[in-house]
Design a protein that fits this description.
A hairpin with a 2-residue loop joins strand 7 and strand 8. The protein has helices at about 15-30, 95-105, 120-135, 170-180, 200-210, 265-275, 295-300, 375-380, 390-400, 415-420, 440-445, 445-460, 515-535; strands at about 1-10, 40-50, 55-65, 90-95, 110-115, 215, 220-230, 235-245, 250-255, 255-260, 280, 285-295, 315-320, 320-330, 335, 345-350, 360-370, 410-415, 435, 470-475, 485, 500, 500-505. It has a seven-stranded mixed β-sheet. By secondary structure, it is α/β, with parallel strands linked by helices. It has three domains: about 1-70, Alpha-Beta Plaits (2-Layer Sandwich), CATH 3.30.70; about 90-280 and about 485-535, FAD/NAD(P)-binding domain (3-Layer(bba) Sandwich), CATH 3.50.50.60; about 285-475, no CATH class. Helix 8 crosses helix 9. It contains 13 helices and 23 strands.
């Protein structure tokens, strides 16, 4: 017999088998199932922390096996990947979660994935990223957003998603575990991998794809589509690429193209606009700042002063008809530079697996709708108004650059932001390029500044102490999602105006985060595989 039960235990009892079995017997008794503790075996399905009411409790959702042995998770639960026979070839633009999981999914049908990635492999990319802090230089093709593994490779590696209806979340987590992620991701309510472990996992996926006959081309940038017209509709036949080191150009023919270029590839959106401006649609996105506190302060607020570490928070409010909310909260983490060009400053957050730095940070961003974009950027977009949000986003990032120094970001104490004054001093920060004092309250767009001001007051009611002398605002956070969606046919998954082009992942505008992007890449690859098998791609 197998029964689902929930156990609430003290943190010190979480791994005490006798306590767990005793509580399991009590939970089963409430279901009129009488058992002896020695008859029960437990398998944790989900783990979460309950810090309400001034105490710490661990919530364990379990399967109770009565007189049976728990099922062992095995390789049989993983996808079965085949060697590619080379008869069918699919180009994948981008090696983020959508691209990598799309490539693995194609290999389930023996289809050859040809992954082209504008940035470097993780080993070289890590060195290039370090130059942002040490030299203030940004490589436009290899940075925190571009490179092997995509924007997620050097991030917290958060695997929590609400997109449970888009695919099999457990399958995605099992694949990550197979390639090296901790087994804790299979049970934690808010699983994460950690920036110290993600690159090795990405490397393992790459090697698996190559070992089965797939191709992986780093420092290879998609610069054009190869198309032909059939029945009055454009159809993609491959792509033109350029080596970002040598400048050499060549073409790659393919049966289909899976476009997984990420939320920061402005040039790809402009390329789609050249061929089919009607295929792009403006969408809601968000912009704001990264807020950093001492980790001990957030831990004390969330865990009520108890000796428990790396607390998370999730905050949201409505201000003047727009949502203001926390995003990508990184307990015990770092604020990192995520610009994709030397003329801009963009910030993001990440954590190592231990989440043990001195700081905790989160994006606090304001919902921005297409109607909020200033008219000048709509005019700049010309015949493709959907691009206006991209141009406004770029403008905001250049504004941050003007108020910073090199890649040192403009910053302001939260109390000074609320009092409309310059910060004479700034607290220590995890942001390695450094920060410079700036009146964010003066140059952030009014609709963002005013809503942030009200939201901070609201959040301080939920988390007393959120407004504190050491709370630091670092600008500007603009890459939570893309302002553009590449429209897809609901049945075929193709770009509505370009046959054989399959947008996927965050860059498509249909997903956000590692897991939902991985599922979206799998979905696109599954459609491609089905259509190739039926000879209708």
């Amino acid at each position: 017999m197998i029964e689902a039960i929930t156990l609430i235990v003290r943190s010190e009892d979480e791994h005490d088998e006798n306590v767990l079995k005793s509580k399991a017997a009590e939970a089963l008794a409430k279901k009129n199932i009488r058992v002896r503790t020695e008859e029960v075996r437990l398998a944790v399905v989900k783990r979460s922390i309950d810090a309400r009411h001034g105490r710490i409790r661990i919530c364990l959702v379990c399967k109770a096996y009565i007189g049976e042995t728990p099922d062992e998770r095995s390789a049989s639960s993983l996808p079965v990947w085949k060697s590619a026979d080379g008869s069918k070839r699919v180009v994948i633009v981008g090696s983020g979660p959508a691209g990598l999981f799309g490539g693995l999914r194609l290999l389930e049908d023996g289809i050859t994935p040809i992954i082209v990635e504008r940035g470097e492999k993780t080993e070289e990319r890590k060195k290039t990223i370090a130059k942002i802090s040490t030299q203030g230089s940004v490589d436009g093709d290899s940075n925190y957003c571009f490179g092997e593994g995509g924007a997620g490779a050097f991030s917290d590696g958060k695997l929590y998603t609400r997109s449970t209806k888009r695919g099999n979340v457990g399958r995605i987590l099992s694949v990550f575990n197979f390639f090296g992620a901790s087994e804790s991701i299979l049970t934690d309510a808010h699983p994460h991998i950690g920036t110290d472990k993600l690159p090795k996992i990405v490397n393992a996926v790459r090697e698996k794809i190559i070992s089965l006959g797939g191709e992986f081309h780093c420092c290879t940038k998609c610069v054009d589509f190869l198309t032909e017209t059939e029945g009055g509709k454009k159809r993609i036949t491959g792509i033109a690429v350029q080596d970002t080191k040598t400048g050499e150009r060549r073409t790659i023919k393919a049966d289909a193209v899976l476009l997984a270029s990420g939320h920061s590839a402005n040039d790809i959106y402009e390329l789609v606009a050249q061929y089919a401006p009607e295929a792009l649609e403006a969408k809601t996105f968000a912009a704001g700042v990264r807020v950093e506190h001492p980790r001990e302060l957030i831990d004390a607020i969330q865990f009520h002063g108890k000796d428990f570490h790396s607390a998370e928070y999730r905050l949201t409010t409505q201000v003047s008809g727009r949502g203001v909310y926390s995003f990508c909260m990184c307990p015990g983490g770092f604020v990192v530079p995520s610009a994709t060009g030397c003329d801009e400053i963009v910030v993001n957050g990440m954590s190592a697996s231990a989440r043990n730095s001195k700081w905790s940070n989160a994006a606090i961003v304001v919902e921005t709708r297409p109607e909020d974009i200033p008219e000048e950027f709509i005019k700049k977009a010309g015949t493709c108004p959907a691009l206006a949000g991209l141009y406004w986003r770029a403008h905001l990032e250049r504004e941050a650059k003007l108020h910073g120094e090199g890649q040192a970001a403009p910053a302001q104490r939260m109390e000074d932001f609320l009092s409309h004054r310059k910060s004479d001093t700034l607290p220590p920060t995890s942001f390695t390029p450094g920060v410079v004092s700036s009146r964010l309250d003066e140059w952030l767009p009014p609709h963002i500044e005013a809503r942030l001001e009200k939201a901070f007051a609201d959040f301080n009611k939920t988390m007393r102490g959120f407004i504190s002398p050491d709370a630091l605002l670092v600008a500007v956070e603009t890459r939570t999602s893309t302002p553009v969606r590449i429209l897809r046919d609901k049945e075929t998954g193709e770009c509505v105006s370009i046959a054989r082009l399959y947008p996927a992942g965050e860059g498509s505008g249909y997903s956000g985060g590692i897991v939902s992007s991985a599922m979206d890449g799998e979905r696109a690859a599954a459609i491609i595989a089905q259509r190739l098998s039926a000879h209708i791609v």
